[in-house]
Amino acid sequence: MKFTDTLKTTIMACHDQSVHHPFIQQLVDGSLPKETFRYYLCQDHQYLRNFQHLHELVAKHLPADDAKLLLSLGAGEDQARQALHQALQITLAELDQTNPAPTNYAYITHMYYQLTKFGVAVATAGLLPCYWLYNEVGKGLAQKQSPDPIYQAFFDSYGGEDFTTSTTQMRAIVDRLALQVDQPTQALMRGAFAKSCYYEVHFWQMALTKENW
Hints:
globular, Heme Oxygenase, Chain A, mainly alpha
């Protein structure tokens, strides 16, 4: 059994909480106010900027092939959002001026902490839920056909073959790192993964309530 196979129970619990969350349910039925989705996208932009930076920091400590792959995966996450920004007329200035909300700030801080405190393997495990959860949600909801084409495009972008491949590649990187560390470090990897799952679910709630300081 590969290391990431041991994480399936955690990610599927996160998936179940996500697909039943009002934010996701309102995306599915098309009732989510556009301003709420705009808020989500602006907050997500701030998250992804740091997410990509963490990919760059981690890549410095990986073998050349994995480093190149990780950098391409990090860049691809932000690119997937650009069409949504254009559809909702969200400007770059608006994105850059967004102040991370408390939950977003805590999630970002958590990811940097895993790297500075525990190292590359643990930090990379903490990055994985963003891929894996969105892929599972996207695959599960791509056929629901939201009446809002913008929301359907959101699901389609994460349930498609390209993002499924990215998720599989990220899992493989985590599996290779897990083989190089001892069991206590693997336990820390599971902990970082679980904490990121926690923040992923709370990110939906943050967006739904337009959380602020």
